[in-house]
Design a protein that fits this description.
The complex is a heterotrimer. Chain B is 30% helix and 22% strand. Chain B contains seven helices and twelve strands. By secondary structure, chain C is of the alpha/beta class. The longest helix of chain C has 23 residues, at 32-54. The chains are: A alpha/beta, B alpha/beta, C alpha/beta.
Chain lengths: 253, 217, 493
């Protein structure tokens, strides 16, 4: 358990910053409610995985350098994304090594070791599973591939969700199968991507949920895009938003 | 340059980054070989696993083996049987007394002859309970490989002291036979396929029926 | 040989006609029956695999040991090859070496001709698929008969394999019945009149059809799951007994084995024989495993040959990241778990190695000269499901990303690309928060234009591919970094 007022650097991620600011806003409110002092280093941008995973290492290395510069001084760096945190932890040192930049590799290894996905930080560092949230809706959870298999958040999101008051949590069939987003996969192989996304949307619809929740906005954009095209009436919401929601202020996605 | 020299040259150039010459030091293998499982009842485990392959298992005492073989042959509708060299005489006598057509592999039976014999009776070398696997090392009582392949039914006698808990112990017991260059065949149930819609069908080319006689110590 | 000579075996289509992956999937995705067959089959086998893996307490330790043993072999392959060659030769095996498929095919054909045989029976083997041995033999007037049930379905169906373990996974029972009914009689014993689509009846038809071929064939060709370097023992893992037929009855046996298939000692088998069947068919053990060490007088083939095949494997070995692909024991767990494979099947990958293993092995074996091979590393969402099921812990996603890097380098070495330009731009934007803030002006402008609406289908490059099936929520009018500046900086809360 941390002492009150612990400084936490928020890694907002580029997609949240630009496309879905409500997610980092929710993260800030949640962490502050739990007694943390949240800092936002404005130099930050992105984990770089869009370049890394498309094969453009040279164009990804500056993001590694920028990440180290932005977050180097912090003991706790928290990001509301399993995928972006996974990329920081699993790819940054590799990119620095590829660039033959030994000091950067050392720094990237150190900083990535202090980088936490939101639910890891809540459960492992703050030691809470009941964050005092209230969300009176039927919700189904998609575990997202990178949260599950790269960052390995395990059942932490479920521990947190189960403690939310008012929530009607329902299992998602075939939950552990990919939604078909895959970064540039969705434009390089649009047909397979759509085939996968529409199956995922079908499983979501079969739950009769009002909300699909996940820890990664990119996957939510993909599945949510299909759900909206189908006029399913099901909304997507990020875990941070549910956890930030309280009886005083129920979060509206 | 011969293909051999060329390939070895390519391999050496491809692994030029490897600078520790002793393989065991270069890549340690974190594994304890030959570990048994702590299965409480190894015999019962073998029975369960072999039956799971839709094979038949019966447990008998030493004195009952001959009669059990005859029962098995009848149960499998076999009228003719090949008995490899090295089977106990009393088993062969029991089969003869049972009124079946008995063939011996001496002189060697042709493949065509073997193909029309209904059944074969053999002993075995080792059985591995956890996977339900019986190993033949084709020593006395087990015959050459074709004998347990062409006839459609295989009756296999396994002694309790031949049963080990799992594959690692099984490999350890078979290592001397393999090092002596004996062929070894593992049987886990009868032949089977799952090639059509992943639905398992027992009995393809090998013996379609396996009947195991387990001799309790 | 006359060019007009009728074929001895059913003519297969060619892999070369299949377009690169993103194009090939279009047809595959539209095949309703195949989609259903694949969904059913992969779902069934996934459930079996996980049940059988969960039974083993030290599963994770086994996987680690297997990876280490395979790495040990790969990193010291020259020593193990020389050792295996000596052990096999001492046991009476004639050992051949083949730099590529053409050389291996030549050796097999020459052995067949020396023996005076015009047909061979075959055990299912990925190595011989890879070198297209059957067609090479056909051209020499030698008929190669596949004896694995699924391979028989593929061969008689004038088809291509679509899975490593279950090559006819894309076919259902009624399709199999149709193939057997129309084709079996042309190449041997016909299927019984009135054969139904019951798998047991179809299997019985295959048994009868092949029994003649087993009994008359003088030569067999196999691959090999493992060669034990220490003893020269070959190991073949199978289910149906067609393998045992081929390994036992003919006088001559030729085994074509990739040079990476070695294991140091007999004892190492305990690790792989626990992992392979559970990962592959989801069984505790496959029905039959055959071990042979050279010639056994009076038992089995008296003339044994082993062809040690390179065919690009040393290319794979030369890449310190990519070489982990050589750990592969061809279990196909990665195919069965792959959500991409489940939807498109094997043919779209354009080679006999489909799925995740095909995406990392194919481009390394064959190089990046062909567009088809440059597309394969991108035929994955990087979901990582394959990493977790692989019994030899191949880090698929790391290798996929590594190969994407090689592809990007290859492409930009030729000429500048649009993609390269986009990535360069993205690299600049993401190198500093100020740069990102400056382009966010555009996203906010779009946000103001659409204000709270969703964006539907639009015929714009790249984004259009996304929007053809999904809507996108309009970007917000205020980014997070602006919110932060307004609401948190300067101490206001």
């Amino acid at each position: 358990m941390l002492s009150p007022g612990t400084r936490v650097a928020l890694f907002a991620t580029c997609i949240n910053d630009t496309m879905k600011p409500s997610i980092p806003i929710a993260t800030v409110k949640l962490l502050e409610r739990l007694g943390c002092t949240v800092v936002y280093p404005s130099k930050q941008t992105c984990c770089g995985q869009i370049m890394t995973n498309t094969g453009y290492y040279k164009d990804a290395v500056p993001t590694v350098r920028n990440y180290v510069d932005s977050f180097g001084e912090f003991d706790y760096i928290v990001g509301p994304s399993g995928s972006c945190v996974g990329s920081v932890r699993e790819q940054h040192a590799m990119l620095a090594r590829w660039a033959k930049d030994a000091p950067l590799e050392e720094a990237a290894t150190a900083v990535s070791g202090r980088t936490y996905e939101l639910t890891e930080f809540l459960v492992d560092v703050l030691g809470v599973t009941d964050v005092g949230a209230y969300f009176p809706h039927r919700v189904t959870y998609h575990p997202t591939c990178h949260s599950m298999r790269i960052t390995k958040v395990g059942d932490r999101p479920m521990q947190l969700l189960k403690a939310v008051r008012g929530i009607d949590l329902v299992d998602l069939p075939m939950a552990d199968q990919c939604c078909g987003f895959g970064g540039t996969f969705s434009v390089k192989n649009p047909d397979v991507s759509i085939a996968m996304a529409s199956d995922k949307a079908r499983h979501v619809r079969s739950t009769d949920a009002e909300y699909l929740v996940a820890g990664d906005q990119a996957c939510l954009m993909n599945i949510g895009g299909v759900l909206h095209r189908q006029r399913s009436g099901i909304k997507t919401i990020h875990l941070a938003e549910i956890l930030a929601s309280t009886e005083e202020e129920v979060w509206v996605a | 340059m011969s293909a051999r020299e060329e390939i070895l040259r390519r391999v050496r150039s491809a692994t030029a980054d490897v600078n520790v010459s002793d393989p065991a030091l270069d890549v340690p293998v974190h594994w304890r070989y030959g570990q048994p499982l702590s299965t409480p009842d190894v015999l019962a485990d073998l029975v369960e696993k072999v039956e799971d392959y839709k094979a038949t298992v019966v447990r008998v005492s030493d004195a009952e083996v001959g009669a059990a073989i005859v029962t098995a042959l009848r149960g499998l509708d076999a009228a003719s049987v090949v008995l490899p060299d090295g089977l106990p005489d009393e088993w062969a006598d029991a089969v003869l007394d049972g009124g079946l057509a008995v063939h011996r592999d001496d002189p060697e039976l042709s493949h065509a002859e073997l193909n029309v014999i209904d059944a074969v009776v053999t002993t075995s070398a080792v059985a591995m309970a956890d996977s339900g696997t019986i190993a033949l090392d084709h020593g006395p009582g087990q015959g050459r490989r074709a004998l347990t392949l062409l006839p459609d039914r295989h009756i296999c006698v396994v002694r309790a002291d031949q049963i080990v808990s799992d594959v690692p112990e099984g490999i350890a017991r078979l290592a001397p036979a393999l090092r002596a260059r004996r062929p070894v065949t593992w049987l886990s149930g009868g032949s089977a396929t799952s090639d059509i819609e992943l639905s398992r069908v027992e009995g393809v080319h090998g013996p379609r029926r396996l009947w195991v006689i387990l001799v309790d110590a | 040989m006359s060019p007009t000579r009728e074929r001895l075996t059913p003519e297969p289509p060619s892999w070369l006609g299949i377009p690169p992956f993103p194009e090939a999937v279009k047809e595959a995705l539209g095949k309703a029956e195949q989609r259903k067959n694949l969904r059913h089959a992969t779902g069934t086998i996934r459930a079996k695999r996980v049940a059988r893996a969960d039974e083993v307490d030290n599963w994770e330790e086994l996987r680690t040991a297997a990876a280490q043993i395979k790495d040990r072999v790969g990193r010291h392959l020259d020593d193990y090859l020389v050792q295996a060659e000596k052990a096999m030769t001492d046991a009476g095996v004639t050992v051949h070496w083949a730099r590529d498929g053409k050389e291996a095919n030549r050796i097999v054909a020459d052995i067949a001709k020396a023996k005076g045989v015009d047909e061979v029976v075959k055990i299912k083997s990925m190595a011989t698929q890879e070198i297209d041995l059957n067609e090479a033999l056909e051209a020499e007037g030698i008929a190669a008969w596949e004896t694995d049930l699924a391979e028989l379905i593929v061969q008689l169906g004038h088809d291509l394999p679509s899975h490593i373990l279950v090559p006819a996974i894309h076919r259902n029972r009624s399709e199999v019945r149709e193939i057997f009914r129309t084709e079996m009689g042309t190449y041997g014993t016909p299927a019984p009149a009135g054969v139904s689509d019951n798998p047991e009846e179809l299997t019985a038809a295959a048994r009868t059809h092949l029994r003649d071929k087993f009994l008359r064939s003088k030569m067999a060709v196999s691959g090999g799951n493992f060669i034990i370097a220490d003893t020269g023992t070959l190991v073949i893992v199978e289910s149906e007994g067609n393998g045992r037929m081929c390994l036992t009855l003919p006088e001559t046996l030729v085994s074509v084995v990739g040079i990476e298939k070695l294991l140091p000692t007999i004892e190492d088998l305990e690790v792989f024989l626990k992992l392979l069947p559970r990962s592959s068919t989801g069984e505790r053990m496959n029905p039959y495993t055959s071990f042979w060490t050279g010639v056994t007088p009076g038992d089995g083939p008296q003339d044994l040959h082993v062809i040690l095949l390179d065919n690009g494997r040393t290319n794979v070995l030369s890449d310190p990241v990519g070489r982990a692909a050589l750990r592969c024991i061809r279990c196909s767990a990665c195919l069965n778990i792959c959500p991409v494979y489940e939807r498109v099947g094997g043919h779209a990958y354009g080679s006999m190695y489909p799925g995740p293993i095909g995406a990392i092995l194919g481009p390394q074996l064959r190089g990046l000269e062909e567009e088809r091979d440059r597309a394969l590393p991108y035929a994955s969402t990087l979901c990582g499901a394959c990493n977790d099921v692989c019994p030899v812990r191949i880090p698929f996603t790391d290798i996929l990303v590594h190969l994407r890097h090689k592809v990007a380098e290859y492409k930009s070495s030729k000429h500048p690309t649009v993609e390269g330009g986009i990535m360069k731009g993205a690299g600049w934007v993401m190198s500093d928060g100020k740069h990102l803030a400056s382009v966010q002006v555009a996203s906010r402008a779009a946000g103001k234009l659409y204000r709270g609406k969703w964006i539907g289908p639009m015929p714009v490059p790249l984004a259009g591919r996304w929007l053809q099936a999904r809507d996108v929520e309009a970007p917000p009018t205020e980014t997070f970094r602006e919110w932060w500046k307004k609401n948190r900086e300067g101490g206001q809360k």
